[in-house]
Amino acid sequence: MKLKVLVGAGDGIGPEVTREAVRILTSVAEFGGYDFQFTEMPIGGQAIRQTGTPLPTATLDAALESDAVLLGAVGSNEFNALPPNRRPEAGLLQLRQALGGFANLRPSFAYKALSANSPLRPEVTDGADILFVRELLGGLYFGEPRAWDRESGAAWNTMRYTRDEVVRVARVAFDLAGHRRKKVTSVDKANVLEVSQLWRATVIEVAQQYPGITLDHQYVDACAMHLMNTPRNFDVVLTENLFGDILSDEAAVITGSLGMLPSATIGGGVNLYEPVHGSAPDIAGKGIANPLGAILTAAMLLRHSAGLENDAQAVELAVRKVLEQGYRTADLLREGQPGQHVSTQEMGRLVHQTLNELIDRRQALHAV
Ligand code: NAD
């Protein structure tokens, strides 16, 4: 197995957490005898400082030639005065568009060890394990016409989808559900919007090719409530761009910390992997950032770009075990709750050590 990974650590805590994710991937490669090649390139504020642009051509070319892109985060207060198209975040948006991924995957998982971190009661969140499949290249964020006509005092955006755009993202959701609990909840607003009626009719059509998967539909407003009341009832949630943006952030409270959340964007030429959090300038350079979102993002890379499901699960199990042993970065500590405070690097080292023990045990079992 050979895999070329472009690493864009970016700004703020990006380099700190990405270092730990790369360490995990390197370890998996060493144990498995895989050939993972990492190339690091500048993106975001880091790139503006070096080249004057947030997405240098060399970074974009290297991304397009790689098998996967692993990002840290971009964004720096230093560039806040620049117009939006020249700021660090513009580099990430350009990269996402160039790679063409249309399905954004965001898991929301309730770790038993972190149940006190969620504002929801443990009896509500225990066992919740949701995967959002959010359409990323269509809908209200891209639809034309769009404008703010200051003279008339009106502004408008267009929510637009084609049948083909819905088919391709629905297939991703059904395929993934086949490896999980075999349920897809499609979220729309078909009681009001024609675009949602197209969405629903198309998802029903795609579902006919997946007889083993249960499909249900929810209106987005009802879904927002059910996610908080009965998160355990969801498996894969399939939805359009804007609804997915909002609902996946809402469901993040199930996990309890932004620093824990991974994401993957698949379906384009090259898959893009990034933790959900930003560059967190308030804690950058202090060695206290939570690297688990980045490490879980590396697990998604193993699953979706390398086809190494067992290794991806081993990384996820290692994270769970370290949390069960009580280790916590600062964002995970809660007053009155037990937990041993560790740094970014120490948390990375603990996951690394636990992963190595798991893989050792697995190899010993295979050798018997
Ligand atoms: P943020 O995610 O960077 O931080 C929000 C809060 O969560 C902060 O208090 C931060 O300290 C905390 N936090 C975030 N990640 C953490 C981690 N791994 N461990 C511990 N605590 C963590 O969001 P923000 O403050 O709104 O944005 C900061 C910068 O990041 C801005 O420039 C923004 O544009 C950018 N941003 C980038 C991305 C990305 O690169 N994908 C995403 C969101 C925001």
State the main characteristics.
alpha/beta; 10-stranded mixed β-sheet; single chain; globular; about 375 residues; binds nicotinamide-adenine-dinucleotide
Q: Topology, pairings included?
A:
Elements: E1 2-10, H1 14-32, E2 35-40, H2 45-51, H3 57-64, E3 68-73, H4 88-99, E4 103-109, H5 122-125, E5 129-135, E6 143-149, E7 154-158, H6 163-178, E8 183-188, H7 194-207, E9 214-219, H8 220-229, E10 236-239, H9 241-251, E11 264-266, E12 271-273, H10 292-304, H11 309-324, E13 327-328, E14 340-341, H12 344-367
Parallel strand pairs: 1-2, 1-3, 3-12, 5-10, 8-9, 8-10, 13-14
Antiparallel strand pairs: 4-5, 4-11, 6-7, 11-12
This protein binds nicotinamide-adenine-dinucleotide.
Nicotinamide-adenine-dinucleotide binds next to helix 4.
Q: Spatial order of the strands in the main sheet?
A: 2-1-3-12-11-4-5-10-8-9
**In sequence order, what are the helices and strands, one letter per element?**
EHEHHEHEHEEEHEHEHEHEEHHEEH
What overall geometry do the principal axes of the alpha carbons give? globular
Overall pLDDT score: 96
Taken as a percent bin, the fraction of beta residues is 15-25%
Helix content: 40-55%
Terminal CA distance: 24 Å
